[in-house]
Amino acid sequence: MFLTKKANKISDIFEKRYSKLRIPLEAVTCVLSIFTAVRAFWLDWLFFGIVILVLALEVQLSHMQKHIQELPVLGHIAAAVMSAYVTAIMTVTASKAEISLSKGLLYLIAIPFDLIVLYIVFSSVLGYILRRGKKKILAAGLMSSALSFILTIYLATDTFVNNFADFPFYYQQLLPTMLWDFVMLTLSLAVIILGVREKHFNIGMSIVMGLILAVYVQYMFMNNRLDMIGMQEFDWKKHAGFAVFNGAVWLFIIAVPLLMLKFNRKLWDKLSTIVPAAMLALHVITAVTMVSTSKNDLFGTHNHAYMTTDEMYTVSKHKNVIVLVYDAADNKYIDKIMKEHPEKLDDFKDFTVYTNTCSVYDFTTMSFAQMFSGVDFDNELTGSEFFEKAWKGPKAEAFYGGLHDMGYRGNAYNMNGGTALDWNGIFDNAAYSEKAVQMKPSTVHRDMLRTNLHSLEMYRALPFAAKRFVDEEKLSFENIVIFDFGYKYYENSDFLAHTKLSPADNDDNYFIIQHTKGTHYPCNIYDEMDTCFDITRSYIDQLKEMGVYDDSVIIVTSDHGEHSVGETGATPIFMIKEANTSHDRFEVNNSPMYFTDLLSTFAVNAGFDKETAEKEFGPSIYDFDEDSVRERTWYDRTEDSDYPKAKIYGNQMYHSDYNTFYAYTYEGDSDTLDEMVKNGDVTEIYPIKEFIQ
Length: 693
Fold this sequence. Notes:
Blueprint: H1 8-42, H2 46-56, H3 61-64, H4 73-96, H5 101-130, H6 134-162, H7 171-195, H8 201-222, H9 240-263, H10 265-293, E1 303-307, E2 314-315, E3 320-326, H11 331-340, E4 352-354, E5 357-358, H12 364-373, H13 383-391, H14 394-405, E6 408-413, E7 430-437, E8 443-444, H15 446-461, H16 464-467, E9 481-482, H17 492-497, E10 502-503, E11 509-516, H18 525-546, E12 552-557, E13 574-577, E14 587-589, E15 593-594, H19 598-606, H20 610-617, E16 632-638, E17 646-648, E18 651-656, E19 660-666, H21 670-679, E20 684-687, E21 690-691
Parallel strand pairs: 2-10, 3-11, 3-12, 4-14, 5-15, 6-11, 17-21
Antiparallel strand pairs: 1-7, 4-13, 8-9, 12-13, 16-19, 17-18, 19-20
């Protein structure tokens, strides 16, 4: 077949002209390759740029050009197609990137040069690799695929499966990106190994073997000091000594295959096949096992219950109780603006700001369940038992049943602390179908998904000293895959952009819960809080325009306080505008407010009889004044080596480092609690039976 034969015309040109034009062709190719690599770096195509540079400099790409004539017709076609594809992708990416006009023009001018350079690169490499022999091609492919699988598929799968609740999408949205990255990284690594000079082939194999082992040791044994990704700011300086030790371990592991190559070649020959084969098999089997045995609905194929968003910005024409939950928004922000920028609160003159708050928990999932069901603290429950107690318990049934009896619809968006199945019969936007509902996204931002996935993989794979250079803002996967099933517009700016309220087409009252990212780490806390206040202003203005502001209750709060170094995370924001209440300026209340007061507070403001609410749900914020002395307890999830690791709810293969709740019981204000935490004055330690992420 002609496709497998040499391209005679190209071979003739090389035979007649190559010896005369070799030097200028080599020089031009080298310069243009560097030019292409630099522009790849501009687009953050780091690995692609490195591959081109290695081929142009270390590999001496120019010397490989003589092998172009060995390439069959099919090889030339493949090289041409690949060069056209990469050039097109570079051009499209450049058109979308925020680059200067001069750089943009440069990319347009460079298109024909890119086509030529990349064609020479691909055809040279293909021709050169074909001469290396089948044995070396297979060896390089095996070594490359082992490292690539760990980096692009295993680490992402492991993180996804064991933190499923933290990913707002399903495995099938992740899989295409992982597979594409696996193929591209495998091919790139194999090309580099096969493309280096003959004497460096085994050195390249040794380095990749060392990286396989180093990455394995890193994610298995060296990442224990890291907190949960994205939960709070990490103090890198505090762990500088460990970072040095970790780096030394990496150097040692990478050095071992190189030393073996020099001093025990027979052993190296065996291990250069055994190590990548064993590591690839181990990680493939483990990944498949994790996915196939997970109790979570990883593929979104068994969803009978889901949350709708049809009424996300719908409010009642009569009475509204609107709870705006800005994640991780701390009272320290309120303290700061009252001292430095009190004018920011001018639009909130009808609100009362509570400055002495305390949440029950320090993290979102259990806090949401406690806030909106009134469930009591119990460390001896499994995850399923906790959610059953929360949403099927007497407090939740009395509260939401009472709301419905008073003509309320209850809608919750970006809700946490349970599942749509738990909320069926609780919230009116919780839908249930007898048949499984295939969860299909309306939007997938594939480039953003790939970028953030790479950041996640590097955060787990890199040595400790290098992790701090990973952009932690790209460890979040919110709003990358968009579903229209109760979870959208979680980012503050997205939520604000879509905040266009409309009156309901019915006569129901509305109890509404809106949850946004708030100031959840990582972010610029004060910028994000300003956006949250803009959301609140938008609600105020639009409710006034609709004529329902006076009859509306607006509560601005959070699930916990700020998560960062030195912060307890126990003092969430709490502001309330009661119905038919007006002030000349915002009021400040320093009474000891505790999140166990919330359900009763919601009930009283929705119209429950105060005595009935107190009997069913406990005290409300109205039962305490600034002179009240009150005992409150904050439960902080903590890693304690004196207790066994806790199982993770929904993932029984792994255990959580968070295995206890440290209870801090105190009287006074946040300064009292901060001092207790700082001094380690733990009131009581409760072991966790099953950690709920």
